Amino acid sequence: MNTAQRWWRGLDHYYWLTAFLAARGLQSQTCRLVALVMVGMSAISLTLLWSPTGPRGAVAQALAVAVAAACWGMAALWLRGRWPSAVESRLCVCVGSLCISISCLIQTDALTGLFGATAFTLVAIYAAVFHTTRWLAITWIATVVTLVVLAVRLASFSIAFAISAVLLVGFTVVFVSLTGRAAIWLVDADILHENFEPLTGMYNRDGFYEKATTLLAARSRGDDRFVAVSVINLDSFSLVGEFSGTSGANRARVEIAARLRETARRDAVLAHIAESEFVIADLFESNDASALIERVRGTISSSPSHLSASIGVVTTPLQPLVQLPPHDVLDELMSIATNAMYESRKRGGNQATYVRNPTLTVFDDTGTDDWFDNEEPA
Predict the structure, then answer these.
(1) Which residue ranges make up each domain of the chain?
(2) Which residue in 205, 264, 287 sits closest to 25, CA to CA?
(3) Contact predicate 131/95, CB 8 Å
(4) What residues have CB less than 8 Å from 68, skipping those under 6 apart?
(5) pLDDT in tens, 201-242
(6) Each residue of 117-126: pLDDT tens digit?
(7) Which CATH architecture has domain 202-374?
(8) Distances (CA, A) of 239 to 163, 246, 248, 340
(9) pLDDT for 4 beyond 60
(10) Beta strands in the chain, from DSSP E residues, in sequence order
């Protein structure tokens, strides 16, 4: 893919930014901010009904009320208690652009409409940061159509003023949106392709290894003396694809990823490393990670897809790892946790197999095969 194609198509960053906000506990604040902007837009639409420059006539006033109602609906979407899906977010871009266009064109005074057209910058910067250039283009098209109509109306007053005013608003919308698009494109070039899985917004395998080895370097922390690596495989996930198709399988992955982010601790490293496989690495005060794993099993089983999971967990003390290469340690921990996960699958799934304090071969020891501490399904 060349630069122009990548600029136009690129990656949809919605789920990556979802993960970024979730990891920092900012999703709720972001939802409230977006909803506040939409409520503010509805208030402006309704307030202009009492302005001498606002909409006149039954049709125009009805459209103003409809715009306000659409803003309330979008605000409710962002305040309903869960983060909107990518499809819902794109719908907000389209509906928001349409609402701004309608609101500008129904004003009695074209100058009032032109002033309102600056609101396109809000939708444009959102589309530029969260979605691809193709979705940003929808906002641009709505902006151009709106400005052209307003320019024609303003031309009766002054052609020079109409051209300069419309160009000023148009350049502002384009500059703001392109700045946001360029910033996220640079992030896309340097980070996203390397470390993140774009569907779920989680780390991919390479990203997981980079962050988890950093986690191992935190072994000097006195309170957290054990590292735990958990491999989570969704049972019978192939059936989801057979019955719901690719889109249904993707929705299930995104839902499980979101639930795992909500369940794990803030400093935990989470990754989506295969079609139906997730990984969590975290530090604990003891070698018992069962509290976390029970929460993981519970949140997966209560998801809309009604899946269960086979989980393999390995915990080992941090202090003996001080002089060992972190990548070699993580390789072996991943291997042990994966084998434990397969043991859970062989036992029928929907359970966890724990490996506590194994003798690691990275110490040049052959280890032991008697590692498994099995837990029956809940």
Answers:
(1) 3-196, 202-374
(2) 264
(3) no
(4) 42, 43, 45, 46
(5) 788 888 888 888 877 765 554 555 888 999 999 998 888 777
(6) 999 999 999 9
(7) 2-Layer Sandwich (3.30)
(8) 59, 11, 10, 23
(9) no
(10) 196-197, 202-203, 226-234, 269-274, 277-284, 309-317, 351-356, 372-374
